[in-house]
C-alpha cells in the first residue's frame, strides 16, 4: 500500500471495501452493521492511501430506498447513521459476521466475532440487542422507537459466527443455520481464530411479541452436514414455508490461515463442500422436518461467502433462488466469483444466469431484493480488503434481464419475469406456467407433499418507494427552465429570499432595541464566530494515514436528532440446557435516554445508554479516521 507524504493535503475519502457486514431491510430502509471497512483517501498531489476501520463505536448505518444512486455515487454521503444502544461499546461493540434478523417492524443483532481488545468488556454470552422501529402487537400508549437489551434462552449463546441466516417476516421468524464456534462453545475473537469448529445447530428466533424474542436451539440431524457461510433461503410453500440451505464449505481457510495442517483440510473441503451445491438441505418449518434433495443442471462449484435472494413466478409455479459471488473457501487470496446462478424450485434445476469478470467479483457481501426485479449486492471485498470493489460498495443486479445496472432509481422497476435461462429448463413463460414442477426424482418422497401444499398467507410488501433525489447522484444538476426562458425555480427562490430578508430586518430591529450591553455582547460573539474561515476544510481532511479513489470534493451532510428508548427484557424459556454456557449476570439498562450526546459523553462499560445525533456517514466516519477509528454501517431505503 502507498504511503503518502505528510506534507500533502487530504482532499477526499471514500469506501473501498466492506467485508463481513450484517444487513437486513425494514420496510423501505436497509440497515448495515458491523464488518471490516477499508477507506481510500485521496490527496492533493494525486497520492492515494488505504486505511482500515478499527472503530468500536456502537453505530449502525442505513440507506433509504427512496434515494437514487449509481456506480459513481459517494456512499460516504448517502449513508446515514444512528447510535446503537446509546453508543456504549460494552453493550454494542462492532461485530464481524453474524446477522441481523428482522420482520417488518423490528430487528435483532445476533452472533459474530469481536476484535481482541482491552478497551471494553464484551457483552455476556446470553445478551442481544433489538431495535423496534414500528409498534406491533398489543397497543402501548407510551411506546417510542428504540433499542432493547434482551437475553437468550438458557441453551442459546451469541458465541457463534459465519452461519447462514434467513428471516421470514410474515412468520415473524428468523433462522441461523450452522456456522462456526469455539471447541468448548465458549468465547472467541476475530484475531485469534478460536471459532474453528462447525456448529451443528439451527437457532430459531420468534419475533411474534414485540421486543420479547423467543429463542430456540435445535440440533441438526446427522445427515445435514454442518458448514461455514452457506446461504439459507425461506421459500413460501407449505403451511409455514421451507428453508433451503445452499452451499457453504467445511474447513474454511480463513479460520486456519496459520495452521500447518492446511493441506489435509483443503483436501477434506474439496471432497465434501461441492456436495452442498449438488444436494441441498430443506427444512419444513411447520413440521420441523429436514429433507435432502439432489439437484441437476448447471451446478455451481463449491462456494462460501456468497449471497442469495428469492424471486417467485407470478403464479408461484416456480420459486427461483439467485446466488451471486463468493469464493471456494480454499485459497484466501484467490479471485472470488462474479457469476450468478439460479436454483429453480420445485424442479431443483440449476441454471447459470450470468458470467461475470475477474475484476468485478466479490465475496463476504450481502444481498437484498429491493424490488421484484432488483437485487442489491452490498459490501464484500475483492480478493482482499485493500483492493477496492469495482462498481462501488453497492451494485444493482436486474433479476429479469440478468445484467448489472449502472444505477438504482426507485421510480424505475418492473414486476418479476421468469428469465429465459429458467423457462428453457422448466417450461412455461415469463409469467409462470412451469410445466416441470418436480425434480427428476425425489430424494425423499415425503418432500413432494411439502411442495404440493400452498402457502396461503399474504406477504406484505412496501414498494414502490417514492423518489428522493440524491445530491451525490451522477445525474445532471443543470438548472431546468420554463417556456418563457425564466428559470422555473426562480420565482420560489426569490420569494423565499424576500421572506427571509423581511424576517432578518425584523430581527435586526428587535436586536437594536435591546440594551447597549446586550448589543455589545452579541457583537463580541459574532466576531468570535467569524474569525473561523467560512470554507475551512473539515478536520478529518488533515489527518495522516490511510482511505476512495482520486481527488474530489469532501462530502458533508447533516441529519436529524434522534431520541429513543433503551429497555431491558428478560426472555424466559423452557428449552433444556445443553453444554453451551448459561449466563445469568447481566447489566441493567435504564429506560431513559439523554439525547443528543457526543461520543465523548459515553463511557465504556457504563450502565447508562445514550442516543447519538443522527447524521450522514460522511459527517460521522470522517472525523474518526483522523484518530484511526470507524465502525459498521447500516443502509436504509426511504
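-> sequence recovered:
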Amino acid at each position: 500500500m502507498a504511503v503518502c507524504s505528510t506534507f500533502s493535503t487530504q482532499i477526499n475519502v471514500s469506501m473501498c471495501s466492506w467485508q463481513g457486514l450484517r444487513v437486513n431491510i425494514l420496510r423501505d430502509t436497509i440497515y448495515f452493521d458491523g464488518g471490516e471497512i477499508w477507506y481510500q483517501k485521496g490527496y492533493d498531489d494525486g497520492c492515494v492511501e488505504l486505511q482500515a476501520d478499527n472503530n468500536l463505536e456502537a453505530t449502525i448505518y442505513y440507506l433509504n430506498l427512496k434515494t437514487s444512486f449509481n456506480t459513481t455515487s459517494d456512499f460516504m454521503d448517502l449513508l446515514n447513521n444512528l447510535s446503537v444502544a446509546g453508543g456504549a461499546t460494552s453493550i454494542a461493540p462492532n461485530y464481524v459476521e453474524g446477522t441481523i434478523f428482522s420482520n417488518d417492524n423490528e430487528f435483532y443483532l445476533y452472533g459474530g466475532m469481536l476484535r481482541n481488545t482491552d478497551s471494553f468488556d464484551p457483552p455476556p454470552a446470553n445478551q442481544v440487542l433489538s431495535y423496534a422501529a414500528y409498534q406491533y402487537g398489543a397497543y402501548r400508549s407510551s411506546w417510542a422507537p428504540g433499542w432493547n437489551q434482551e437475553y437468550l434462552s438458557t441453551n442459546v449463546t451469541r458465541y457463534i459466527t459465519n452461519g447462514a441466516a434467513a428471516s421470514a417476516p410474515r412468520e415473524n421468524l428468523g433462522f441461523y443455520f450452522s456456522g462456526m464456534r469455539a471447541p468448548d462453545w465458549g468465547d472467541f475473537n476475530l484475531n485469534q481464530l478460536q471459532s474453528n469448529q462447525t456448529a451443528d445447530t439451527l437457532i430459531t428466533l420468534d419475533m411474534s411479541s414485540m421486543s420479547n424474542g423467543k429463542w430456540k436451539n435445535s440440533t441438526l440431524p446427522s445427515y445435514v452436514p454442518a458448514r461455514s457461510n452457506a446461504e439459507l433461503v425461506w421459500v413460501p410453500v407449505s403451511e409455514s414455508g421451507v428453508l433451503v440451505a445452499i452451499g457453504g464449505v467445511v474447513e474454511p481457510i480463513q479460520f486456519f490461515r496459520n495452521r500447518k495442517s492446511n493441506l489435509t483440510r483443503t483436501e477434506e473441503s474439496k471432497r465434501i463442500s461441492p456436495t452442498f451445491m449438488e444436494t441441498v438441505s430443506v427444512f419444513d418449518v411447520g413440521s420441523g422436518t429436514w429433507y435432502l434433495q439432489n439437484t441437476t443442471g448447471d451446478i455451481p462449484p463449491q462456494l462460501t461467502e456468497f449471497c442469495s435472494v428469492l424471486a417467485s413466478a407470478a403464479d408461484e409455479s416456480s420459486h427461483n433462488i439467485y446466488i451471486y459471488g463468493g469464493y471456494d473457501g480454499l485459497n484466501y487470496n484467490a479471485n472470488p466469483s462474479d457469476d450468478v446462478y439460479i436454483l429453480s424450485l420445485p424442479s431443483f434445476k440449476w441454471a447459470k444466469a450470468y458470467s461475470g469478470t475477474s475484476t468485478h467479483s466479490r465475496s463476504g457481501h450481502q444481498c437484498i431484493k429491493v424490488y421484484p426485479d432488483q437485487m442489491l449486492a452490498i459490501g464484500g471485498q475483492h480478493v482482499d480488503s485493500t483492493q477496492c470493489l469495482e462498481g462501488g460498495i453497492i451494485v444493482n443486479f436486474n433479476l429479469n434481464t440478468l445484467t448489472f445496472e449502472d444505477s438504482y432509481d426507485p421510480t424505475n422497476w418492473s414486476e418479476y419475469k421468469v428469465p429465459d435461462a429458467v423457462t428453457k429448463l422448466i417450461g412455461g413463460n415469463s409469467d409462470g406456467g412451469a410445466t416441470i414442477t418436480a425434480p427428476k426424482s425425489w430424494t425423499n418422497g415425503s418432500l413432494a407433499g411439502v411442495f404440493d401444499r400452498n402457502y396461503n398467507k399474504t406477504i406484505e410488501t412496501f414498494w414502490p418507494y417514492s423518489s428522493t433525489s440524491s445530491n451525490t447522484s451522477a445525474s445532471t444538476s443543470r438548472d431546468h427552465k420554463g417556456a418563457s426562458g425564466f428559470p422555473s425555480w426562480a420565482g420560489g427562490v426569490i420569494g423565499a429570499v424576500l421572506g427571509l430578508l423581511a424576517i432578518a430586518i425584523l430581527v435586526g430591529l428587535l436586536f437594536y432595541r435591546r440594551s447597549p450591553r446586550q448589543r455589545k455582547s452579541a457583537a463580541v460573539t459574532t466576531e468570535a464566530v467569524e474569525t473561523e474561515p467560512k470554507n475551512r476544510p473539515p478536520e478529518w481532511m488533515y489527518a495522516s494515514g490511510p482511505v476512495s479513489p482520486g481527488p474530489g470534493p469532501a462530502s458533508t451532510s447533516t441529519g436529524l436528532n434522534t431520541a429513543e428508548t433503551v429497555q431491558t427484557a428478560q426472555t424466559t424459556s423452557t428449552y433444556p440446557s445443553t453444554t453451551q454456557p448459561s449466563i445469568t449476570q447481566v447489566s441493567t439498562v435504564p429506560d431513559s435516554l439523554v439525547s443528543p450526546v457526543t461520543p465523548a459523553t459515553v463511557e465504556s462499560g457504563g450502565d447508562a445508554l445514550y442516543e447519538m445525533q443522527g447524521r450522514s456517514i460522511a459527517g460521522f466516519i470522517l472525523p474518526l479516521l483522523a484518530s484511526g477509528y470507524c465502525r459498521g454501517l447500516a443502509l436504509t431505503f426511504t
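The two ends are 37 Å apart (CA to CA).
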